[in-house]
Amino acid sequence: MNTIYVNFLCEKLGVRAWQVEQGVSLLEEGATVPFISRYRKERTGGMDEAQIAELKHWHQKFDELEKRKQSIRETIQGLDKLTPELAQAIDVCVDAQVLEDLYLPYRPKRKTRATTAKEKGMEPLALALWKSQIKDPAREVSAYLNEEVTEIDAALAYARDILAEQVAELASVRADLRQHYLKQGRILAHLAKGVDPEEEAVAKYRNYFDFSEPIQRAASHRILAVLRAKAEGILSVKVEVDSNYLVTRIERQYATEKYTRPVFEVIHEAVEDAYKRLLHPSIENETLHTLKERADVESIRVFGENLRQLLLAPPLGQKRVLAIDPGFRTGCKVVCLDAQGGLLHNETIYPHPPANEKTMAMRKLSHMLEAYDIEVVAIGNGTAGRETEAFLKRMALPEGVRVYSVSEDGASVYSASPIAREEFPDYDVTVRGAVSIGRRIMDPLAELVKIDPKSIGVGQYQHDVDQTLLKERLDGVVESCVNNVGVNLNTASRHLLSYVSGIGPALAQNIVDYRSENGPFERRRDLLKVKRLGEKAFEQCAGFLRIPKAANPLDNSAVHPERYALVEKMAKDAGVTVQQLIDDEQVRLQIPVEKYVSEEVGLPTLHDILKELAKPGRDPRDTLKVFEFSDEIQTIEDVKVGMELPGIVTNITNFGAFVDFGIKQNGLIHVSQMGQKFVQDPNKLLKIHQHIRVRVLEVDLKRSRIGLALVTTEKGLPQQ
């Protein structure tokens, strides 16, 4: 990698040059982010997963930048204008926008006022004025007149057009203005002309009808809201700066010659025209684009953190589940699943209005609970969810059967997807949706990987942000979560397997096909028998796959097969078997770790191995807890200011957290109601699916909005 890029990444990631170079080398060798962060700590100096993911992102960006540089060099060279100084400026550039500034004077143009002036032969006059070779325009300009331009005033006007474009294309001017707009500018928004403020689609932006905020303090969610309204034609948006100051600033920096007053007036008019006609519209658009990019990055960061928490939500494990997708008029779709999530039975009950078949519903449910030896009931938290939960609790449930409320976000998307049709070709969307609800409680990660992350309901303006960057980051989060937890090689779906390091969709299908034809895998090395799964793919994936009850206990751990011999040597030196090494903590504590350091294996890997041997195949996720909403409220009309209620965090944004407390409308805890310490980052206090208590501050029935204050979390009062 180019030294310029290495130095940039060293500063950005807070690492040394050799770490960047080794990380890039591993990525170019085909290693994945999870594999590098877990199994190549010595080569990267212990760079963590976030650093390596960022390195991967910038490595790809710089590859694209290099291609663009080459294209620009060739174009300018073709014009015979590539000076050594310009070539050097292009070579050291790490910013795509700065690169385009350097290219701007040489970019092929459509017809402009300046090109017209040049065609009329006025470029020598403009150059003479700029270099102060003319002292008295009234007397000296006549020497530059020709058959097409016969008047001094016309000649000066054409010269000003050329000078204006020249000033507007100076890379240093554009860079200075760009920085000034971002540091000193304000973003302004007003209701666009002819827009009715009372329209429903318009009224939701009422906070921005007369909006003004310094750019440096503008929060990402407000930027995205304003720009969305602008795109919809609802708001007029602009950037405000002190234009007179900036014109003077340009003149002081770039019009430094000792001009006579008549010439300075020409230069001043050219600079003023350059700023107002060419620079301000361009830099204003760039500034709004930069604000959008920054807001996208922040929004995607928040979305990624929320998604991580959701995917790593506590699993209930393999239990026999009765899952209900509740409804009123259409009834409640009920499915019974075995401990592996297989569909055993489905039917519909109608315990709610208008049918009110409560007795029949109880009879059917009692029969299913007994016939399928149900251990857990999972109820979707959407329409009729609270009513269905209350109905279940009035029944005499078998001893030990627990009832859980489960998020329905994305279940309808899954139920209509090709994945769902492939899994359940003979069932309709209602059955598939209920199955998804039931499987989510058993293992949220395994089920949610089947759904587009944008549909899971934990984003912040996810449909407004850069979709390419969003997909890149969210795919990275899913991959990280899957590999962090580990995957059962013999039970995982192809969708889950496809996110395992080094596998992907095609190899995932080949693994499932091999399993179907040959039965369960008995050891990790058998993966090499899978069609098209070679040594490289095996290296990348093996450590993240688990085989419970394998003959070799290491096959059910995060110890990589490349280190099996090392573990076996440790066991042999200690006079025990590998299984005894796993079972006996005292033996592990007595292992002289430094003895096993080598050129390939350092202390970080050795400590990881010993940590894994202490709890092989452990699931890093927490234990699922039962949650009960307050019986005091069923609708928003029941919610009163001053109430303290239990709730579950459903989404976290930069402006606050949304809380479900058992009715159709979620409430919002604004960051100002979380405690001063967490105003900048609510994620430091709250997590998705966290159980909390809130106090009702405001109830707006007309807008269906509920304002809340945080009272306490599972870990106690919020820290001030």
Count of discrete alpha- or pi-helical segments spanning 4 or more residues: 30
Task: Work out the radius of gyration.
Answer: 33 Å
Number of strands: 15
CATH topology of the largest domain: Tex N-terminal region-like
Spatial strand sequence of the major β-sheet: 6-5-4-7-8
Strand content: 5-15%
**What is the CATH level 1 assignment of the largest domain?**
Mainly Alpha
Determine the mean pLDDT. 92
CATH architecture of the largest domain: Orthogonal Bundle
Main sheet summary: 5 strands, mixed
What kind of oligomer do you see? single chain
- Supply the helix-strand structural class: alpha/beta
* Helicity range: 40-55%
Shape: globular
Topology:
Layout: H1 3-13, H2 17-28, H3 33-39, H4 41-44, H5 49-78, H6 84-91, H7 96-103, H8 113-119, H9 123-130, H10 137-140, H11 152-168, H12 171-184, E1 186-191, H13 200-203, E2 210-214, H14 220-231, E3 235-240, H15 243-254, H16 261-311, E4 321-325, E5 332-337, E6 343-349, H17 358-371, E7 376-380, H18 385-393, E8 402-406, H19 411-415, H20 418-423, H21 429-442, H22 444-448, H23 467-485, E9 487-488, H24 494-497, H25 504-518, H26 535-541, E10 545-546, H27 564-574, H28 578-583, H29 585-589, H30 603-614, E11 644-653, E12 656-660, E13 667-670, E14 691-700, E15 705-713
Parallel strand pairs: 4-7, 7-8, 9-10, 13-15
Antiparallel strand pairs: 1-2, 1-3, 4-5, 5-6, 11-12, 11-14, 12-13, 14-15
Helix pairs in contact: 1-2, 2-5, 3-5, 8-11, 9-11, 11-16, 12-16, 14-16, 15-16, 16-23
Account of the protein in words:
By secondary structure, this protein is an alpha/beta fold. Strands 6-5-4-7-8 form a 5-stranded mixed beta sheet, sandwiched between helices. A 5-stranded mixed barrel has the order 11-12-13-15-14. The protein has a 3-stranded antiparallel beta sheet with strand order 2-1-3. A hairpin with a 4-residue loop joins β14 (691-700) and β15 (705-713). The longest helix has 51 residues, at 261-311. The mean pLDDT is 92.
